[in-house]
Automatic annotation (TrEMBL):
<feature type="binding site">
    <location>
        <position position="217"/>
    </location>
    <ligand>
        <name>5-aminolevulinate 1</name>
    </ligand>
</feature>
<keyword id="KW-0456">Lyase</keyword>
<feature type="binding site">
    <location>
        <position position="233"/>
    </location>
    <ligand>
        <name>Mg(2+)</name>
    </ligand>
</feature>
<dbReference type="Pfam" id="PF00490">
    <property type="entry name" value="ALAD"/>
</dbReference>
<dbReference type="InterPro" id="IPR013785">
    <property type="entry name" value="Aldolase_TIM"/>
</dbReference>
<dbReference type="GO" id="GO:0006782">
    <property type="term" value="P:protoporphyrinogen IX biosynthetic process"/>
</dbReference>
<feature type="active site" description="Schiff-base intermediate with substrate">
    <location>
        <position position="195"/>
    </location>
</feature>
<dbReference type="InterPro" id="IPR030656">
    <property type="entry name" value="ALAD_AS"/>
</dbReference>
<feature type="binding site">
    <location>
        <position position="120"/>
    </location>
    <ligand>
        <name>Zn(2+)</name>
    </ligand>
</feature>
<feature type="binding site">
    <location>
        <position position="274"/>
    </location>
    <ligand>
        <name>5-aminolevulinate 2</name>
    </ligand>
</feature>
<feature type="binding site">
    <location>
        <position position="313"/>
    </location>
    <ligand>
        <name>5-aminolevulinate 2</name>
    </ligand>
</feature>
<comment type="subunit">
    <text>Homooctamer.</text>
</comment>
<keyword id="KW-0627">Porphyrin biosynthesis</keyword>
<dbReference type="GO" id="GO:0004655">
    <property type="term" value="F:porphobilinogen synthase activity"/>
</dbReference>
<comment type="function">
    <text>Catalyzes an early step in the biosynthesis of tetrapyrroles. Binds two molecules of 5-aminolevulinate per subunit, each at a distinct site, and catalyzes their condensation to form porphobilinogen.</text>
</comment>
<feature type="binding site">
    <location>
        <position position="205"/>
    </location>
    <ligand>
        <name>5-aminolevulinate 1</name>
    </ligand>
</feature>
<dbReference type="GO" id="GO:0005829">
    <property type="term" value="C:cytosol"/>
</dbReference>
Amino acid sequence: MYYPVIRPRRLRLSDNMRRLVRENHLQVDNLIYPLFVTGGRNIKTPVAAMPGVYNLSIDLLLEEVAAVQTLGIPGILLFGIPDYKDATGTGAYDENGIIQKAARTIKDKYPDILIITDVCLCEYTDHGHCGIVQDGDVVNDATLELLARTAVSHARSGADIVAPSDMMDGRVQAIRKALDSEGFTNIPIMSYGIKYASAFYGPFREAAGSAPQFGDRKTYQMDPPNAREALREAEQDIAEGADIIIVKPAMAYMDVIAAVREKFATPVAAYNVSGEYSMIKAAAHMGWIDEAKTAMELLTGMKRAGADIIITYHAPDAARWINSV
């Protein structure tokens, strides 16, 4: 028997009633906040395409980390803006590189905050690609050693989790082997296992200065129309030792998040990327949408799709919105 005996609206008639039967709950515990760190002191350079996001020197980064910890956000994801770039991205694995310095400083002052470090070469290479370039091609296997060196240097500097984002084949295995051989068997790998060659990365590339100087990244990042390929990528990374799988971007790929969640027991992270963030900021600035309601609806959608972790530039605001309820 259906209507009028069954009336779904009965369970929607008040805020407390809706809270009582709510199926998905976004929590501060689900959030990771990405941060950009640069050299110098007292540097706070706004990223024009990402209102509210800055390139921060380490002294000001510490203030941001303190705020993150106060809000209850469990961790941060660090991206480095190096002082120099070269063909092989030596700044990525320099023991005195910007990420290495930042991780040591943060861990010394805020030992409980989870430090996740982006492991890639694109911010550190003068050509802007995520690997070594030979004869105009990004070569896979020669890049793996440098990624492994980068991950080990991050672990040695205090990183709690390393997150390879390069999309080279076999990099999880190379990193796991290198970490284990150096005694870092307890450092998890949060792999960008499913990273699409997306149009949503533009504002990030402005922030990190990582736009490729020639060509594009379509030969190593995934083709946006593909979903079955995503499951193959996730399966391979898990087999190689990935502890967490990232799906990036999130908004246009919630079906992929759901498919990965259904097939694998491994924790899944959704990366709510720069372009997604900037669209909400721009529309809110124009008065076309309510920023808080729209952002929270989108982030909750990622959670509903199956994400255990959400990496988002909205994290501090989202934490405040959640805590104010």
